[in-house]
Amino acid sequence: SLLRGADEIGLRKPVKAEFGGGMRSFSCEEDYIYENIENELYFFTSQERQNIIRYWLENLRAKQGESLHNIQFLEGQPIIPELAARGVIQQVFPLHEQRILKRLMKSWVQAVCEAQPLDEICDYFGVKIAMYFAWLGFYTSAMVYPAVFGSILYTITESDQTSQDICCVVFAIFNVIWSTLFLEEWKRRSAEFAYKWGTLDTPAESIEEPRPQFRGIKRISPVTSAEEFYYPPWKRLLFQCLVSLPICLTCLSLVFLLMLGCFHLQEFVLSIKELPRIIRFLPKIILAIIISACDEVYKKIAYWLNDMGAW
User: Fold this and answer.
1) Residues 77, 64: Cα–Cα separation, whole Å
2) What is the distance between the alpha carbons of residues 240 and 248, in angstroms, rounded to a whole number?
3) How many distinct structural domains can be found in the chain?
4) Between residues 6 and 158, which one has the greater pLDDT?
């Protein structure tokens, strides 16, 4: 079943050297050409197994006239994403494998001054997570050079303004050269990882299903002749002009006025020298609370606008 699922999603696997090597989308008809195909325990990584199972879940299709919890499905509509969007299913996620987690805990989390086990991370968490930690490790190592060079400049810089200006220019030039070399080297390093993990020449993703939150009127598609939800473009444009744009401008204006008020309060507090020292920090505390509160409110507004198809 896993092999058939890998064939359906076009999972890329390494090919044996005698058949040309490299990476190729898996095919059940030519399964003998892939490395480790004889060992069913190690042919698929944990992440690949979870990926196949999730693909099956997300592609459970409704038959004509099927309904659940007063939800009417279209023929061929994915069931799990629709139920998740309607709140019937709260969340779909894979369970951890404690055996592999313990191994990663020793070789990765608890390891000191050792290289990250990027291949193991990729096998368990997937390419995206592994690529992130690969970049994070590469960036952290690359930061050693400007740190050392900046420390040396700081040490030899004299107290006069001319010497400080010269060192600032030198450090700026160094940073320009360092950032250029950093980006070019990361391009090479990321290409190596992408080739090694089978994502360098990954073909474009096939056409995805419309997001489950999409709502509209039922119609027959002029392209596929299948039943689909359709939302007129003029309604979307009207919603953008009369709802989305005013709400966004109102939110921006509100944030601007609140920040301006906090700055004026800060100036007023600083002008009174008799106030205790702790009171002088009160406007900054208020501003931090306002920013946190606005962030939560605006996040909900953004989700609502996105679900309405405003942007």
Assistant:
1) 9
2) 10
3) 3
4) 6
Instruction: Based on the fold, state whether residues 152 and 59 are members of the same structural domain.
Output: no
For the ranges 38-47, 69-78, 173-182, 263-272, the one whose mean pLDDT is highest: 173-182
For residue 195, what are the domain limits? 98-201
User: In the listed set 46, 73, 94, which residue is the last one of a domain according to the structure?
Assistant: 94
Could you say which DSSP state residue 113 is in? Answer: S
Are residues 192 and 134 in contact, defined by beta-carbon separation less than 8 angstroms?
Answer: no
In a shared domain, residues 78 and 153: no
Q: Is the pTM for the entire model greater than 0.90?
A: no
CB 307 within 8 A of CB 239: no
What percent of the chain is predicted at pLDDT more than 70? 92
pLDDT at 95: 86
For residue 202, the 8-state DSSP code is P
**Longest CA–CA separation in the chain, Å:** 84
Q: Three-state DSSP class for 64?
A: coil
What local confidence, expressed as pLDDT, does residue 310 receive?
40
pLDDT of residue 201: 61
Name 67's bridge partners: 72
- 9 with 82, same domain: the answer is yes
> Which residue pairs from 142-146 have beta carbons closer than 8 angstroms and sit at least 24 positions apart in sequence?
142/178, 142/182, 142/185, 145/178, 146/174, 146/175, 146/178
Domain final residue pick, 75, 94, 113 = 94
Provide the phi-psi class of 287: left if phi over 0, else alpha when psi is between -120 and 50, else beta. alpha
What band does 263 get if pLDDT is binned at 50, 70 and 90?
Answer: confident
* Within-domain flag for 223: no
17 phi, psi to nearest 5 deg: -60, -35
Amino acid at 235: K
